[in-house]
Amino acid sequence: MTTELSAQEWDEQFARQAGWTRGVRAHLYRRANLLRARQVLDVGCGTGVLTEELAERTQGRVIGVDLDPGMVAFAQSRNGKAEYRLGNAHDLAFRDGEFDLVVCHFVLLWCADARSAAREMVRVTRPGGAVVVCAEPDYGGRIDYPDLPLGCWQSQALRREGADPLLGRKLRGLFALPRVRQAEVGLIPGLWDLATLRAQFDAEWSLWERSLTGLVPRDELARVKAADLAAIQAGERLVFMPVFYALVRV
Q1: Which DSSP category does 88 fall into?
Q2: Are 156 and 167 a contacting pair, CB within 8 Å?
């Protein structure tokens, strides 16, 4: 991720993202038998928001890996139950079949080669274990009312930063791999309610304004921000973002 945010600011963003998918994660954790997992890996752990959640829900060992040294250092400073290491999703430094459960959350869209990352996650999962992809968005399916260009702008910004804004729709194909017994793909109906839109308006726009700098003229950005706020205040704003998940049985 290239948007210039501090580790603390990213931690706050990751916490907001975790709030969006909390219910689906709980369901996936139960189905993947997290409670009884002895070895768990969180790929692309960032600042450790979900890694510590995983560690609280199992008696097993939980390891988080991330490519960014600053985020790994931030995660380690939590002094929580999980372990943290520098690591690349494309080349995980673990043995074949080392983990009962491998988890990621809003990660594959940032991978230069998402198929390679998927293959690595499957490789380090033991037979009978599972890979849980908690959330991967698809900005091509975003709906805004009133018709604001935020989805289009965000897609352009993500591509500029090396991410794939359409990763969600590709999720099933990524796990069409020899060791995979079953890949169950589902959709989180990401329809934001007005209370959430109001509460997260400032934080979300702070991130958008940084990521869209140089891509959208400042006056146009200000116009759309004002229109967004006016629609929220009028009670007519609608934002739908499809987010896909996968439960992959190895």
Answers
A1: B
A2: no
pTM, two decimal places = 0.93
* CA atoms lying within 13 Å on the CB side of residue 62: 25
Domains and CATH numbers, the chain: 7-138+162-191+242-249 (3.40.50.150)
Q: How far apart are CA 29 and CA 103, in angstroms?
A: 9
Query: Are 129 and 250 in contact, with CB atoms under 8 Å apart?
Result: yes
Residues 152-157: contacts with CB under 8 Å, at least 24 apart:
153/208, 153/212, 153/215, 153/216, 154/208, 154/211, 154/212, 156/215, 157/211, 157/212, 157/215
Q: How far apart are CA 74 and CA 71, in angstroms?
A: 5
Contact 186, 21 (CB under 8 A): no
**Structure tokens belonging to residue 176:** 């069409």
Distances (CA, A) of 92 to 43, 50, 124, 141: 9, 19, 8, 31
pLDDT digits (tens, 9 = 90+) for 142-153: 999 999 999 999
Judged against a pLDDT cut of 80, whether residue 209 lies above it is answered with yes
